[in-house]
Amino acid sequence: MVDTIPPVPAYIISVVVVISTLFLFRRVYLSLFLGTFLYGALTLDLYTMISDIYIGSSNIHTLRLLTAIIQALFIAGVLKETGVLDDITRGLMKVNIKFATFAIPALIGLIPMPGGALVSAMMTYNLYFKDLNLDRSEASFINYWFRHIWVPVWPLYQAIILTAALLQTTVYDVIKFTYPAAVSGILIGIIYGLYVQRKNEKKSAVEGRKLDFVKHMWIFGEIAILALVLKIDISITLLITLISILIVYQPDKKAMKQGLKTALDPKLLLIIFLAMIFREFIVTSGAAHHMFQILRDYNINKYLVAFLIPFSLGIATAGEFVFAAIAFPILLNIIYLPTGGIDPVTLLMGFTGGWIGVMLSPAHLCVILTVEYFKADIVETFKHVYLAAAATVLLVVIIASMLL
Q: Hey, which of 141, 158, 381, 404 has its CA 20 to 30 A from 337?
């Protein structure tokens, strides 16, 4: 029998492997595969590993997570292929020019998709540079920032769904603690964005108030009402929404095929299984308990740790899946209160750290695509992103301190 090593050092080793291989191979599923099974091999015996693999890949939380993410991605693919997203963005540009600068990337952000910022960049190009005469780095910041403001609160985002599964709670219970991050990001983004527009304002007549896009808003309203107001399980919420979309828009075979292709990406499905297997390895090895012991023995502030671990993973990997999958399992003992409930401040700081870390990562596909399409300077763009991120974190800390 191969000797095992303590779980916290093993966790650090596995994180280093994930980050280094991600930079080498640029394949999230491969890096997470290597990190997950290296951690298992370092901390568990073979029989326990096999048992945890079975439990992690087949339990009800994994199946619910898998179902929800497949449905969310299928919805995104169908709406893109049927032209609904294009219809929405064109309509917003005719409501109010300044409103559209924020609203177009924000609305595109309600339908999570890889590289989605490129979609909003294409729709806002003339608006940013002809109507408002924005600096290219400032325009890149607005598009990139508002494309991601919903990450901490919108039920379609995989990080939210995955976090709920890892904590074995509901999407609603996650969002009710993480929403201050989104509120802070929106406020900072609007303040900064209005300052940029004031500085670069160009006289331009607002086009007619064509509100055709409103006819599509029922999709987002239905999701919000079902998941956040009625607190219906996210899988059922997405199933109802998907059926409604199919009935209303009647997508053709091409749109359905593309939607299924988006939803059934085998690499994405593998990431989901690996995330849940990694959680089982963490729980069985007692890593969360060991981390809690270290924090207590050395009197380390748990909120700082809750922020820094996801933040480091986010900025290093640019992956919402990665920060949620790797950070939250080891933080379980500080996220949960002794009474069994969730500590709102710990979860808020953890999710904020992961989200902001991903936003600050130079490897983030959305910022790369935006800068490339707008022909902007990436260093200048990140100056705006870093300033907004720092202000957002500060505001979240202020809110968190009020909750203590």
A: 158
Residues with Cβ within 8 Å of residue 205, at least 6 apart in sequence: none
- Do 331 and 346 contact (CB within 8 A), yes or no? yes
336 pairs with which residues across the strands? 342
Gap between the Cα atoms of 359 and 367, Å rounded: 8
Tens-digit pLDDT profile for residues 311-337: 988 887 777 877 888 889 989 889 998
pLDDT interval class at 206 (50, 70, 90): very low
Is 1 among the domain residues?
no
> Does residue 2 sit within a domain?
no
CB-based contact 192:388 (threshold 8 Å): yes
Assess whether pLDDT exceeds 80 at residue 88. Answer: no
Q: Is residue 182 part of a domain?
A: yes
Q: Round to whole Å and give the CA distance between 309 and 312.
A: 5
Q: Whose structure tokens read 């996801």?
A: 310
Cβ(45)–Cβ(51) under 8 Å?
no
Q: Which domain holds residue 76?
A: 7-202+210-403
Per the structure, the count of domains in the chain is 1
| Whole-number Å distance between alpha carbons of 167 and 400 | 20
